[in-house]
Amino acid sequence: MRRNGSNGTKTALFQCDRRVRFLTTKSAAQLRRTILPRSVALWGSLALVDLAILAVFFLLIVLPLLSVLAQAVMPALFDPKAPGFGIDISALNHALFAPRVLRSILHSLELGAAVAVTATLTGGLFAAMTQRFALPLRAFYAPVPWLVFLTPGYLKAMAWVLLMAPGGYLAQLRVLPHWGSDAFFGLGGLVLVHTLSLFPLPAFIIGSALTGLGQDIEDAARLSGAGPWRIWLRINLPLLLPAIALSMIAIFAEVLSDFGLAATIGRSSGFGVLTYGIYAAASDYPVDFPLAGAQALVLLTLILLVTLGDRLLRRQGALRLISGRSKPSHRRELGAMARWSWAAVIVAIGILAIWLPLGVILVRALTATLGAGLQWSNFTFANFTETLSPRAMALPSLLRSFGYAGLTALIAATIALILAARLDRGGPNLRASVTGLALGTIAIPGIVLGFGYILVWNRLPGFRDWPFPHYGQASLLVTGYVASALPYGLIIILTAVGQLAPSLTDAARLHGHKAAARLVKVVLPLVLLSVISALLLTFIRTIFELPISQLLVPQTGSPVPPYVVRLLGHDDDGLASALALVCMVGAGGIAGLGWRLAQKHLNFTPKERLS
Amino acid sequence: MTAALICEGIEKHLGGKAILCALNLSVAAGEVVSLLGASGSGKTTLLRAIAGLTHPDHGTITLNGAQVFGPNRVIPPEKRQIGMVFQDYALWPHMTVLGNLAFALAPQRLPDAEAQARITHALEVTQLSPLRDRLPAALSGGQQQRVAIARCLASRPQLMLLDEPLSNLDSALREDLRSEMMNLVRREAITVVYVTHDQAEAMAVSDRIAVMRSGEIAQLDRPETLYNAPATPFVASFIGGFSLLHGHGARGMFQAGDAVLNLPAPAGPAVLVIRPEDAHPYGKYPATGLTGRVISAAYQGRCWRLSVSIAGCTIRLDWPCAAETGKDLQFSLPPDRCCILPFDDAPNPKDA
């Protein structure tokens, strides 16, 4: 999953977090009253752990972000020749009102608003039809939202470019007229591909709200004489409005922070958006950090506003209707005609969103040139041979990506576990601040975080010459990966630790077990499944992570995502397709296998027994 | 008998609110003392303070002669050798029954033979030997509770704390398990502090009961004493479904509304404690006759449970025959069973 494919997880995680129990065992006042010298030393060292926790967050996330903000208002701050602390809003003004930047802002807003509507409509329809009606061909559409959710956006974009390009497959099959191709490269194509990539989000949000509504409400309306259309318009739709609004907000934020589509379809059609603007200013020669900083400031402000809107909506308790009490709804039967036509619509969404793009990538990977199309003589294994050949560039980048992702997953999950165990018993303030930071970080676009890393590690004195991690080396890329993965891991593991009844560790304590034994023997085995989920999720996310990889490409060689995008830019889309496929199959296989094994061996207890 | 547990002047505040106020409690070795109170009365906080899972602001806690908490001394819970049966049992779900017992014993670093003997004994007395290799999830609620007790027994604690150990079980099981559990505890002569909000349970298990109210012990006595002579209207209202008739004491008489009872009563506001089973036919005790209006009548097998309104108070009575709702009912109380207490303007604990 790419970094900016995050709001769905974010939504789910917000909901988890509300359930996370706040545990206050020891207040600071109590601690001060504990006079025994040994315990003073003990608490002293624990306070050090707290400091270390905050230091990790500061270094990984806060400092890069602060640097970006400072860069926006102090244009000379990171100037290599004459650095200065002068605050100069005029540079910001100039950057903001440059026609190119203004256009990027407008494009971002326009695209976000359009996709918020189209994706919510598509996802809502998908959720309503699949949850409330008995449709045939279930196997074809049931896994679609998850598959779409886990496939990185730039790969779906690549498939659609192959389909819609003037010389692409649809033009070759004479399905697509010339004007269709023109319309695709611009707002239209971006809206189409974004909609098809993002509709799982509203499908999840609206779907879970629908589950919460239960059947009783509908049954009551039917007994009062309301027909099915009336029930949907007068009962279900108004009750779903909060979920619909949340979906639109989530989609809007998602589109604003997207980099995958911006760097592929957006770039090739000249449709500049903020994220790509930041990338271009920060990495295309000549680099223009003040310009990148100004655009990052605008993007962060927009994201902040959206997050505030989201928070306000949630605070109003608009989603309270989702209660555990409602009876699960059963799927209603439809007439044969309606059944099959709705099934066709849902299956069509599934085909367009995942099966067709995957098929196109497979066909392209198995053919020599795009121009020769589907002719039999064009089919070849050459792309796969080259991908897997030890002497070409693709295999090393593949191995590199798997290595970085594995390392990132291990580091992030370990840090997250220690943090979670400490936070669970820590004061409510520490817990609230770290959880808030983690949730806040999820909303930060990867491209902004990556830019912050460049500012800190390439320009900031002290950091610039620091040997490890070092700018331009894999160590910094992995650090960036860890920073962007840590919040997810932390929230998953924190939720799991929070669901453990405190009596489980209290009991171990009363029997004489020390803190380390309690963590290793009681907490870890019980949250291991969640730790492994966090690990696998981080692994997949990192393998396909584009924006940070793009900005922090190590000198030793590129990981897969930037390499795929570069191959696409050089019209080497056959190799790009083969590499992407091998990467997807490899990552999916490893994650699937790991998940299966973990489920089989670590799931010794039904969840409700833990609480 | 020596005191196994002494709590002196325990105080605890949370968020500016007093949870425990200058509380004193002493438990003799081998004694079972219940902490009985409504939720929020501080009973669980006291239990957790004894265990060391929370620290009081002031006071001392002494366990078998050794101070475990005091102004200059805090022994952490893992060193106190206290066993606890949690409300949710807190069985480690990833360990078998045997694994739970073994893990609990591990920190004591006993010789293998001794550890083995203790585990075997604990499993035998709790009749868990056939289930030793099961995971907690594969046990019934009652079996899980027995594992929690076996885990405690195996570590031979100085003191055993039971935190509402029966509240997660259905009522049919509860009584059986209660006697089974207490037989075990008695046989092993373990000192027990037992937290519950169910007065019938407290009566059944305890040598003494501490009735708790907003962080203080309202009365600490043997169950019979509590039943026969509650110290305050609060304790009376908490015990045995007693009803309180509010009135006044004057010139050695108790007066409630129109009724005047020839009973020694303290001067000023007072309450008459009426136990449901004490209602007798009107003529039987002429000096203590009362008349009230029947509000409701419910058949209970052995008798009818009537709610009767007298002078604005609702009194619950066990009556041998049906009574018509809305009609007057006359009854009398045995004078030697009548208990009149000065009214201390206490709110009903159930409202708290």
Helix residue percentage of chain A: over 70%
| Element string of chain B (H = helix, E = strand) | EEEHEEEEHHHEHEHEEHHEEEEEEEEEE
Number of helices of chain A: 27
Helix/strand-derived class of chain B?
A: alpha+beta
Order of strands, widest sheet of chain B = 7-8-9-3-10-11
Indicate the mean pLDDT of chain B. Answer: 89
| Largest β sheet strand count, sense and barrel closure of chain B | 6 strands, mixed
Can you describe what's shown?
The complex is a heterodimer of chains A (611) and B (352). Chain A has 611 residues and is mainly alpha-helical. Chain A is 74% helix and 0% strand. In chain A, α1 packs parallel to α22, α5 runs parallel beside α11 and α19 runs antiparallel to α24. Chain A is globular and about 70 Å long. The N terminus and C terminus of chain A are likely disordered. By secondary structure, chain B is of the alpha+beta class. Chain B is built from eight helices and 21 strands. In chain B, the strands form four sheets. Chain B has a six-stranded mixed sheet with strand order 7-8-9-3-10-11, with helices on both faces. In chain B, strands 2-1-4-5-6 form a five-stranded antiparallel sheet, with helices on one face. In chain B, a hairpin with a 2-residue loop joins β5 and β6. The longest helix of chain B is centred in the middle third of the chain and has 17 residues. Chain B is elongated and about 75 Å long. The C terminus of chain B is likely disordered.
